[in-house]
């Protein structure tokens, strides 16, 4: 008999689509995959060499549950220099990917029945993580005219006596929207006045096309004291398979996270941690170059999408996604449960392009495409989308 925790957990739409794409490709079917948020770049050379060096130097033994001392110091320096936040060494914990860092944080903070505010649209795993750990996701409807960013007023109206945490993704997956400093200050003030923690998922922080990115914890000492900052190397350094993420937070929470991690996994792979150390210290030029290429791809993609009169989209300021409004086509698709799922299913079957239905992010009138794939595939995928829409 399986745990009742799984009764209300929905499988990941993105992993399900990725699996379907792999099956079709194994059958020899040529598929354009614009569904998975994985950089098409390889891990920078110096990061790989640091990992290889660690293997040859036999750095393969158990280490600290909070992560390698050298890597945590590199993260500490990065957060101070790039984000303007001074963290103590023991306020940083390295985990097996940012997803793991989020899970550790939720285990450390949530009691059964605690509410976690999640603005819509949201990354697919947030709500399921909260549910598996006994929390209650509270979804907040946001406004398209504000690029689906939660406002202080919307947040305030969603808080109850059971609210423990606000989960905020900045830059956003799936919209690519970025919060301004003033917007974040207003949100922080609401949280401070209502004793609500903030889980700030900043995994796309480096993939930012605006002049300034603001980390929530940098706003004030008070903001830092209620914030758990989540980041990692998967997106910024194309290190998805290495599984290295980290959290930075007040000492008491960090100690709890480290204790939890020590019992569950001991610590992340030492070899992966040394590669991450190499990425942080030796690969900044490569990471900046990736962002420049993403920006060029974004500009081309939105130029092509702008020519399709039947749709509209959120103009992304960061990350590598475009969230597309397909609501005007609703009467042209026969569907039973989910409009966006049926739209994406037909698009895959008829035009051999994989994208993600908006229902995965909590809004059924949208689809999400990525532009972290080869630009020729992105262009062809958008051209096929235009044909598909015209032929509906």
TrEMBL record:
Belongs to the class-I pyridoxal-phosphate-dependent aminotransferase family. It comes from Maledivibacter halophilus. Keywords: Aminotransferase, Pyridoxal phosphate, Transferase. Its cofactor is pyridoxal 5'-phosphate. The lineage of its organism: Bacteria, Bacillati, Bacillota, Clostridia, Peptostreptococcales. SUPFAM superfamilies: PLP-dependent transferases. Gene3D superfamilies: Aspartate Aminotransferase, domain 1, Type I PLP-dependent aspartate aminotransferase-like (Major domain). This is Aminotransferase. GO terms for molecular function: pyridoxal phosphate binding; transaminase activity.
């Amino acid at each position: 008999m399986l745990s009742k925790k799984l009764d209300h957990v929905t499988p990941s739409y993105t992993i399900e689509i990725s699996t379907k794409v792999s099956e079709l490709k194994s059958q020899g079917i040529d598929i354009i995959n614009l569904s998975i948020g994985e950089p098409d770049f390889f891990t920078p050379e110096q990061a790989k060499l640091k990992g290889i060096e660690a293997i040859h130097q036999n750095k393969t033994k158990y280490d600290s549950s909070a992560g390698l001392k050298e890597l945590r110091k590199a993260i500490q320096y990065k957060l101070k220099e790039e984000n303007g936040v001074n963290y103590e060494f023991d306020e940083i914990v390295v985990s097996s990917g940012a997803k793991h860092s989020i899970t550790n944080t939720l285990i450390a903070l949530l009691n059964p029945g605690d509410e976690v505010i999640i603005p819509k649209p949201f990354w697919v795993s947030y709500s399921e993580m909260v549910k598996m750990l006994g929390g209650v996701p509270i979804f907040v409807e946001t406004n398209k005219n504000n690029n689906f960013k939660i406002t202080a007023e919307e947040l305030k109206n969603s808080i109850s006596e059971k609210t423990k945490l606000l989960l905020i993704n900045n830059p956003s997956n799936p919209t690519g929207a970025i919060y301004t400093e003033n917007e974040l200050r207003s949100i922080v003030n609401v949280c401070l006045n209502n004793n609500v923690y903030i889980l700030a998922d900043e995994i796309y922080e480096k993939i930012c096309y605006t002049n300034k990115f603001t980390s929530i914890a940098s706003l004030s000492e008070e903001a830092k004291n209620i914030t758990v900052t989540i980041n990692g190397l998967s997106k910024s350094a194309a290190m998805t398979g290495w599984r290295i993420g980290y959290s930075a937070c007040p000492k008491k929470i960090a100690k709890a996270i480290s204790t939890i991690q020590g019992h569950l996994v001991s610590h992340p792979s030492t070899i992966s941690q040394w590669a991450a150390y190499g990425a942080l210290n030796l690969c900044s030029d490569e990471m900046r170059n990736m962002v420049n290429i993403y920006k060029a791809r974004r500009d081309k993609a939105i130029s092509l999408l702008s020519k399709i009169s039947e749709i509209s989209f959120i103009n992304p300021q960061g990350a590598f996604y475009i969230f597309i409004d397909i609501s005007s086509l609703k009467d042209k698709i026969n569907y039973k449960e989910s409009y966006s799922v049926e739209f994406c299913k037909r698009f895959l079957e008829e035009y051999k392009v994989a994208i993600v239905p908006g229902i995965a992010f909590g809004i059924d009138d949208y689809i999400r495409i990525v532009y972290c794939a080869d630009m020729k595939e992105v262009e062809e995928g958008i051209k096929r989308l235009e044909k598909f829409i015209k032929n509906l």
